[in-house]
Amino acid sequence: MSVEIAERSGQVPSKNSGPARCSPESGIALLAAYLAEDEAKTVEQEELDPVLPELR
User: Fold this and answer.
1) Of 25, 26, 30, which Cα lies nearest the Cα of 1?
2) pLDDT, tens digit, 9 for 90 and up, residues 33-50
3) Integer Cα distance of 31 and 36 in angstroms
4) N-to-C CA span, the chain
């Protein structure tokens, strides 16, 4: 999942799950920080059609 996918396809959960504990060097640090926000959206990835990641 990414912040973009959560914003596009997710919903704000009814309760906050608490602060994320993630090292800033982690590959998911930005996502963890986003999910810790009050208005962050979550989505079950299984509900989305698979898409290959873009190569940069």
Assistant:
1) 30
2) 888 888 888 888 888 888
3) 9
4) 18
